[in-house]
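Please, structure for the following, as tokens.
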Amino acid sequence: MEQQQQAIVIGSGFGGLAAAIRLGAKGYQVTVLEALDAPGGRAYVFKQDGFIFDAGPTIITAPFLFEELWALCGRRLADDVKLVELDPAYQIRFADGTVFNYSADPAKMRAEVERLCPADLPAYDRFMVKSREIYGLFERLGDRPFNRFSDMLSVAPDLVRNSGYQTVYGLVRRYFSDERLRVVFSFHPLLVGGNPFDTTAIYTLIAHLERSFGVHFAMGGTGALIDGMVRLIEGQGGVVRCDAPVATIRTEDGKVTGVTLRSGERLDAPLVVSNADAINTYEKLLDRPRQRWTTKKAARSRSSMGLFVWYFGTEGLYPEVPHHLILMGPRYRGLLDDIFKKKILADDFSLYLHRPTATDPSLAPPGCETFYVLSPVPNLDAAVDWTTMAETYRARIAAALEATVLPGLSERLKTSRMMTPLDFRDRLDSYRGAGFSLEPILFQSAWFRPNNRSEEVEGLYLVGAGTHPGAGLPGVLSTAKVLEHLIPHAPRAA
């Protein structure tokens, strides 16, 4: 009787689930191990007082990557999950009250640019050509493994030709004279944990990605995608086990032999994929000394910023608030310097407000709204005591929202919960409590990140925000796609 080759995936975030589906399609018998009581990782779903909150990612910009996973299982994404394209994709509101409606529609975008600064309209057209060129580089390299430094050298000419040596803001500044438009077209790295003033200009590809494929929302919330992916894995014969935290990745003679759970249970497999935090995979899980990703190297690395997230529900509706609203504070570079460089919690902030009930009212009780508001903050390298500061910070954000876009918020508040960098460290096991793992600077990209195929031990692979190509849903799903080049189809054992 033939037996399928065993494979273990640690973590059930988008990267881990996508890896499990791809391994299942290659003939592996996959077991996904999740420490939390439900799948999702950063995409966990909170349910409280009748309100449903997506804990993490809410912006879906590359639906074709999900469609690929469903196709591997002989299904259509649309059969299981309904995606709705948003227009505007999001609204950006500046401190002076100016509003920019960001859209995938080129005509609408040109009209918005012209409304803010007519002189910059030709520059916008040229910028979008550049973004398309850089996106082409991502298409060629986004799912390509970088296992050797020579792999990095081979693409150096492409990186130089596509301005990879510049920063996002530096490139955008070359095109736009209006500072508001410089913000509009440079803030995107914050969606993947980067500082626009330090992140490689490769990330300006996001503008073309959003124009080409739009910004979507999954009806039922992002958790509907997680549930759908779990069903795909189960349909392949795989298993997703929750409340199953891994204590150790076991090795012998330089090869993976399996994992041991914190409960003491041992699971054997010659192939392990870690969707756990990349740094902590090496710092906490691997049972052998490391040659490259040592504790000293981890300490020298630069982590992304932290996140403060307040989830809340209101009684009564706010129909004038769009699905995605970005509220820019009075400072741009100064605030980012405080977060990324000085590591201090500033008095001012910029916010991302998510109102999913604008598109799907089922996520709240009748006549109510579901929200979350996210504020980039320093990671745990900063001397911020979140155990005492969290409620103070939440109250400051609530007051700012009530004074601007959510009048009467304090009287209409029905439910509330928070996540701080401490939760990212303690609940999600994120190194330094970072929201997006390693900061996406040039020398922490591609080969410079923890490799998708471990440099430390044979049979160990990494997916998720901390490996190539990086954070954000397209990036994380692509980390699993890289495995297509690295892991052969499963052998059959008698």
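The chain has a mean pLDDT of 93. The CA atoms of residues 90 and 102 lie 5 Å apart.
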